[in-house]
Amino acid sequence: MRKHFKLKHIVIGTIIAAGALAVAPLAAAQTQAASETSANPLAQSDKDFVQAATMSSSTEIDAAKLATANSEDKDVKSFAHHMMLDHTKLTAELKMAAPHGVAVPKDNSDTAVLGSLRGLKGKAFDQAYISKVGVQGHKEAVAAFEKEAADGQNPKLKKAAQDALPTIQKHYQMAQDLAAKKGVAQ
């Protein structure tokens, strides 16, 4: 009787786990889309900002992880480490600033950018990483944060953008300096 009871719990547990795994991709898709639904209280400009800011930070973090593995340059690795720390912090701050009921996507990296970096190693990786993620990525991030800081409708998101803007601008300058030092066209 005891074995049957234990086996029944194992089977039920397995069914529940399988169900959770089947629902996980749906939940992830809903999380990403949550910042874009008409049901939440955000103006379109704020929704666009949440999407752009989370994509930027997520891409920075994932690309920095690639840089740790694929770069042999200490300056590139140092820059990547700095980006990983700062963008992890910025993501947490954005989540805190988001209004209740607005899901902030956790992982919505730009797959095209990451895909273009994945097969590269050494100097080829460094040049692409500095150009696409460091310079271009931060140029776009600065524009998104400046737009939200100036035109944002949600006061908490607008303040979060204003507070984060100096850090994003500093990253952009660091990326430009790194590009100049390593001879990467901007």
Automatic annotation (TrEMBL):
Database matches in InterPro entries: DUF4142, Ferritin-like
Q: Name one Pfam family in it.
A: DUF4142
Task: Please state what the protein is called.
Answer: DUF4142 domain-containing protein
List each copy of the DUF4142 domain by range.
Answer: 44-178
Q: Which organism is it from?
A: Paraburkholderia bengalensis
Renumbered to this chain, the signal peptide range is: 1-29
Keywords, in A-Z order: Signal
Name the domain of life this protein comes from.
Answer: Bacteria
